[in-house]
Amino acid sequence: MSAPDLDQIQSGALADVAAAGSLADLESVRVAHTGRRSPLATVLAGIGGLPPEQRGTVGKAANLARRAVEEALAARTAELEAEELGAALERDTTDVTLPGDPHPLGALHPITQVRQEMEDILLALGYRIADGPEIETEWHVFTALNTPAGHPSRSPSDTFFVGGRPDRLLRTQTSPVQVREMQASEPPIYLVAPGAVYRRDDIDATHSPMFHQMEGLAVDEGLTMAHLKGTMLHFFRELLGSEREILLQPHFFPFTEPSVDVQVSYTDKNGRPGWLELAGAGMVDPNVLAHAGIDSERYTGFAFGCGLDRIAMIRFGVPDLRLFFENDLRFLEQFA
After folding, report:
1. β pairing state of 210-220 and 189-198
2. Is the pLDDT of residue 51 over 60?
3. DSSP assignment of 56-76
4. Is the peptide bond before 188 cis (omega within 30 degrees of 0)?
5. Would you tell me the crossing angle of helices 308-316 and 225-240 to the nearest 10 degrees?
6. Which of 82, 170, 227, 282 would bridge with 259, disulfide CB 3.0–4.6 Å?
7. What pTM value is reported for the model?
8. Which residues does 192 contact at the CB level (< 8 Å), separation at least 6?
């Protein structure tokens, strides 16, 4: 193979590269002139069989020819890509200089909005936020809260026990957080404990086996039922508006004595007025303080628990709490 032959191979390859009218045509040219069976590849493969005095000259000329063809291929590829992009833009009426379509922003779930609003009201009163485990011991959920053995709430028909163990369960309320905080802290204690809780309730417009609570606890010297009543009235009027009717009536809870049921005026999905229970409250039973290691002769306290889901129903005028958990964006976007 002589230098003139290589010059002819190179010039033919460069001519074919320049004549390629599309990227597909150029790919065929590349295979024909740089592939394993191309003339250049044949020359390079046969260098070892040439006489020693010809190997250097032919090898150098063949490599220069291959480099020239590869550079021409790269340049022509860039040209054809630019031409095809320009043609595509001419066919498309989209103005590429305009900003792109914005991605929709997320928003807080309505129950989260209500929880944060409730937290803000109580934080302004001097409370702090506390948290605890959702899988609890029977002692923290029942015994420490003055719930006796044999109480219906301790039955598997009312409570979700975990792994077949009678001492591990999904908490039925966030009150165990109060117990843990009283064990770990010295009075005065003012805290709120929001979170998910679990009970074996049938699903309907106002009940769910998983729902959200926010419980509050105040333990200090000289606290009375008057402090509890004032706190409840202020809290719900701030949350639901001063025009909302609020009713406190006697009730019973094992862990408070005396106890009250907090209800607010409510219109159901059929437009009928009524009362909806939103919270249970009362003065902390001395036994609960004693279980937590607090001197019940010196300190008194009050506690309250609210259902976040029901409060969200009232707050946003939603007649069925199941709507909050169905994850229908058409519904949830109304509160964004």
Report:
1. antiparallel
2. yes
3. HHHHHHHHHHHHHHHHHHHHH
4. yes
5. 40
6. 282
7. 0.65
8. 118, 119, 122, 127, 128, 129, 130, 214, 215, 216, 217
Distance CA 124, CA 108 (A): 22
Instruction: Give per-residue pLDDT as tens, 126-182.
Output: 999 999 999 999 999 999 998 888 888 888 888 999 987 778 999 999 999 999 999
User: H or E segment at 113?
Assistant: helix 110-124
End-to-end CA distance of the chain: 77
Distance CA 120, CA 114 (A): 10
What are the tens digits of pLDDT across the range 1-31? 555 577 888 888 889 889 988 888 888 888 8
Three-class DSSP labels, 10-60 = HHHHHHHHHHCCCHHHHHHHHHHHHCCCCHHHHHHHCHHHCCHHHHHHHHH
Is the pLDDT confidence value at 105 over 60? yes
Cis bond upstream, residue 39 (ω within 30): no
